Amino acid sequence: LLAQSIFINGHASITELHTAAVSSQPERKKLFLGGVCGHHSLYKLALGENLVTSLQSVEVEVVTLDQVVPQSLKVNLIKIDVEGAELDVLE
User: Which residues make beta-bridge pairs with 8?
Assistant: First the structure.
């Protein structure tokens, strides 16, 4: 859906799309899938008040920002929405 949105909005020439999760260490990790699109997490999801579990997970590549953002690129803004793992991304 993101690739389609980038294309439809005419941003393909200025956008680089990576199919990976972002955290503090490069690795392969389970991505726990939430019941709602966009509510997936590298951490087990809490379903209900005290029950920690997940219905499904998939194995994903995890990269660091340093791997995908060139050092020479000046970054003015980063939008991060990673279901509670923001500090891991910035680390």
Answer: none
